[in-house]
Amino acid sequence: PAHGVLHLGRPALPEEVVAWDIDIRPDGKGLPEGSGSVEYGTEVYEAGCAACHGIFGEGLGRWPVLAGGHDTLTDERPEKTIGSYWPYLSTVFDYIRRAMPFGNARSLSDDDIYAVTAYLLYLNDQVDEDFVLTSENFNSIRLPNEANFIADNRQSEEAVASAGEPCMSNCFPEPAVVTERARILDVTPDKDSDE
Amino acid sequence: MGRRKIIAGAMGAGLGTVAAGGAALASVPTPDPLITEVQDWNRYLGDGVDARPYGRPSSFEKNVVRRDVSWLTADSKSSVNFTPLHELDGIITPNGLCFERHHGGIAEIDPADHRVMINGLVDTPLVFTLQDVLRFPRENRLYFLECAANTGMEWRGAQLNGCQYTHGMVHNVMYTGVPLKYLLAEAGVKSRGKWLLPEGADPSHMTRSIPIEKGLDDCLVAFKMNGEALRPEQGYPLRLVVPGWEGNMWVKWLRRIEVGDQPWHQREETSKYTDLLEDGRARRFTWTMDVKSVVTNPSPQAPIRHGRGHMVATGLAWSGHGRVKRVDVSLDGGRNWQHARLDGPSLSKSVHRFYYEFNWDGKPMLIQSRAIDEQGHVQPTKQQLRAARGVNSIYHNNSIQTWLVGNDGGVENVEVS
Q1: pTM for the full predicted model
Q2: Residue B255 in contact with partner chain A when CB distance is under 8 A
């Protein structure tokens, strides 16, 4: 073969790349042709998604909540959903296409995914009930929390960047006091199984 | 069987004698029947070499197992379990005990059916079979793999009793693999190629964006762990090794690497593995696992049973920034510290074993460990991390752990101030 240094492997065929390369970027690169309405998305969602995620995206049991939670990110218990937290719509389409429904991945058509993505926008109050999501208008949708992601700046934290010799003796004046005990919560499994 | 029962009874009596002798009571020493009597295993033949083609631990070690916490997740197929750190020593994690984290269960793949594709901004998109991968030059490296969420349940307070649960989403094995840069060189990365997207073959089709500098630096495409093939739950037949970086990026069942000019902002780097701060903003691309340590013995699952006197405290330390240079241990909740002793290989981005030998006076202790890495990062307290980040970051909790040792030798997960 002509390629490479050790000449191992073989050229990938276009059909093979198309079959596996399904990722989509925030700028829309990778989006397939297609469209889907909120109305049809309701059908897709209720048939394939609602059993875990709830009719309104509220999440049943411990299954993920998909809608709601707006303005809760500074709350004691934030609700991080597509509408309240996710930065990009492309991730919604991409992730549903690669991994959902849970236990039956890669089973939805591109149009099904456009439709269910439109429905999730509707559940999150981002579009009206007559909205149709298409490969053309996809990039015009912006999710509310896009601007609130920042780069890793942990090195700017004193606790992380701290170089130099730490205290070795008499580091605080009074003896340490216990303030929290895991035993009180008693949520550890198998607590009697050791030894 | 009658004889076995008698021996078991004698065994208990023997242990009692030893304990009483240790307490320096003025009792007359009695001979230990485990020594004076011939035992079954001294007399009768054991299994032959044909009995155990793939050996397993002694039946007396049946408690040394991975454990899960069922209330953590909605389904065991997208969940996590924990390495029994309190039962292990040294720095190598046995393959069968390495914690598991799956998002779509364990993919069972015939290696003959596995394919690896490289596509995107390359001169020649390629497909490799496993046999092709095995023809590249190999390297052997020891690295820790820590889940970004390790210790994540402890952000708000002391919650789970046992270092297996609080710190057991980490393992450390020797990988044999091909440097990723060799595979990329075969395809020929175009000059615009700045990012890599590894993808798994499992039903979650796990994807993460990785800057190409990291991929060309020290990433491996591994096919062995601790000398044998990867376990299915660790990505058999191929996984990505991303030294020092959060475990989520170590894509298992690796089937594709795409080269691009921008990150993809996949679900696992937007919805997940982003770290919410107190002001409502969230950090993304928090790749490196910061310096961390934990005392594994004593710990809540490993209480002190031998009474007062000379004892060995031990634990693990690691840093995604390089080698661990030093570990300090405190017995009084961080007021005073002593240097622990590092033992065994000190390798970059691998766990280190430390020991602290001392004379326990039988009084309650608040045991802590504090690691310092070769770049001078000092493991922070939980208060320091909370002051900087709040309590909703979920990931990257590398704070100092406190164990309360009671005067009975029992141990609890606590917080101190």
Answers
A1: 0.93
A2: yes
